[in-house]
Amino acid sequence: MKPTEVSDLMAFVAVAKRRSFRKAAVDLAITPSAISHRIRTLEDRLGVRLLNRTTRSVAPTSAGQRLLKQLHSAFESLEGALDAVNDFRDQPAGTLRLNAPHLAVDVILAPIMKPFLQAYPDIHLEISANDGLVDIVAEGYDAGIRFGERLQQDMIAMKLGPQQRDAIVASPEYFLKNPEPKIPEDLAGHACIGYRFPGGELYAWEFAKGEKEIEIDVQGPLTLDSQRTSLRAASEGLGIANVLESLARPLLNDGRVVRVLDDWCPSYPGLFLYYPSRRRMPSPLRAFVDFTRSLDDMQHLLMGGV
């Protein structure tokens, strides 16, 4: 097979997985027009349309789906062969693409980026922050980070750090003007800072104590889609926020916010690194897994916030 034919196939796989000529072009470090030319060349050579294109979307045809399935196994074998050779290197090398919610980037990835890249200088780390549910295989990521209850099926999962808890917080000044809630129902009438999921759903605050579980549809003048911004708003006296305990801890420690309803906030499964099952794990991902497993202060980092 000629090198140009291999390049055409790589272009097709990139577009089919990313469902975007622009994103595929970024992945392959070429222009979108070059990607488009390679796809047309491949389709002309095969005599069949591989991709359905509109002004808003790109998707494989039936023929394209069949080819993609075959090429996935072939390219995975090639990647495994190259990775096997990479085992002879003194250091793992290549690109590691991770997908994680903004919160996980803040509390997990940000503290370990520097030590990881210092330990593996030949690895290029690419992190995409996305609070929505992402198909990491279809989007071309090596691994993702999510809370335990939101993990994709058929994935290998590795726990990162301890269990987590929520913290209900507001500024001391807020509680000089408003009574502290003693039970979740007391939140009625308070200026609560709402959280909206990426899909558009408003989060109902969840509480539990003993056998009792309750959800509160909070009300207030402000709704955000970021826990970090919610925490800042709470520290500035705009209302009561529900955020991750590890994110709030630095502000709790220095008194910028105070905590209420602590006994109504139970622990829940924490964050997990997850990735697809493969016969050979890419060396950058294997290095990251080994690094996080051996990091003695991982729990300290997660418990210490950012």
What layout of secondary structure does this protein have?
Blueprint: H1 3-18, H2 21-28, H3 32-46, E1 51-53, E2 58-60, H4 62-86, E3 94-100, H5 102-119, E4 123-129, E5 143-147, E6 155-160, E7 164-170, H6 172-177, E8 193-195, E9 205-209, E10 212-216, E11 222-224, H7 227-235, E12 241-244, H8 245-253, E13 258-260, E14 267-268, E15 271-276, H9 283-294, H10 298-304
Parallel strand pairs: 3-4, 3-5, 8-11
Antiparallel strand pairs: 1-2, 5-15, 6-15, 7-12, 7-13, 7-14, 9-10
Helix pairs in contact: 1-2, 1-3, 1-4, 2-3
Q: Helix and strand string, N-terminal first?
A: HHHEEHEHEEEEHEEEEHEHEEEHH
In terms of quaternary structure, the protein is: single chain
> Structurally, how many domains make up the residues?
3
Q: Kindly provide the radius of gyration, computed on alpha-carbon positions and rounded to a whole number of angstroms.
A: 23 Å
How would you describe this structure to a colleague?
With 306 residues, the protein is of the alpha+beta class. Mean pLDDT is 85; it is low at 299-306. The chain folds into three domains: 3-73, Orthogonal Bundle (Arc Repressor Mutant, subunit A); 94-156 and 270-304, Periplasmic binding protein-like II (D-Maltodextrin-Binding Protein, domain 2); 164-268, 3-Layer(aba) Sandwich (D-Maltodextrin-Binding Protein, domain 2). The strands form five sheets. The protein has a five-stranded mixed β-sheet with strand order 4-3-5-15-6, with helices on one face. Strands 7, 12, 13 and 14 form a four-stranded antiparallel β-sheet that branches. It starts with a helix and ends with a helix. The protein has helices at residues 3-18, 21-28, 32-46, 62-86, 102-119, 172-177, 227-235, 245-253, 283-294, 298-304, and strands at 51-53, 58-60, 94-100, 123-129, 143-147, 155-160, 164-170, 193-195, 205-209, 212-216, 222-224, 241-244, 258-260, 267-268, 271-276. The chain is elongated, with a radius of gyration of 23 Å. It is built from ten helices and 15 strands. Strand 3, helix 5 and strand 4 (123-129) form a beta-alpha-beta unit. Helix 1 packs across helix 2, helix 1 packs across helix 3 (32-46) and helix 2 packs across helix 3.
